Amino acid sequence: MDNITELLVKKEKNGFDNFKKFGLFAGILIICLVAAIFLSGSAFLLPVWACFIFLGYKINDRFSVEFDYCLIEGSLDVDKVFSEKTRKKYLSIDQSTVELVAPLGDNALGEFSKLKTFYATNKNEDNCYVVVGVNNGSKCKVVIRGDEKLINQYKRCMPRKVIVK
Fold it and tell me: Scanning 2, 10, 73, 152, which has the fewest C-beta atoms within 10 Å of its C-beta?
């Protein structure tokens, strides 16, 4: 029997995201105004404006992010979903390379403090767990939301490697 667990976690917008969005639109507005000054009366003005507005629209889609966890027999795949349309593989950790699954801040994570960390959840969320394993040939830590079904499946697949709160 396959053990499959899926979870979708929406990334919360923070102040820095709003600042980046404001900067994007302010930059596009300034470029369009400069183009209007230098290309006034030119046939290229409308296509230039259209290109920059389209570029702003496409970049704006990147601000709505969700993480999709798929845990199959202990192997974790995390995808980033942009604006509920575009899916991009974020990371993949095979069960055989998982060394530890522990709550964020647990003492057992001390020896892994210098590893590269991927955040696949909101950084200030309460119920976070860290999965230590190998992604693309290098050891790393992944911070995920500790959903009860997800952690229970990890406990079933590899009980000696999971620390529960």
Answer: 2
pLDDT in tens, the chain (165 residues): 467 888 888 887 777 878 888 888 888 888 878 877 777 777 777 787 788 888 888 777 777 888 898 988 878 999 999 888 888 999 999 989 999 999 988 899 999 989 999 988 877 777 889 999 999 899 999 999 878 888 888 888 888 999 887
Q: What is the DSSP string of the chain?
A: ---EEEEEEEPPP-HHHHHHHHHHHHHHHHHHHHHHHHTTT-TTHHHHHHHHHHHHHHHHGGGSEEEEEEEETTEEEEEEEETTTEEEEEEEE-GGG--EEEETT-GGGGGGTTSEEEE-S-TT-SSEEEEEEEETTEEEEEEEE--HHHHHHHHHH-GGGB---
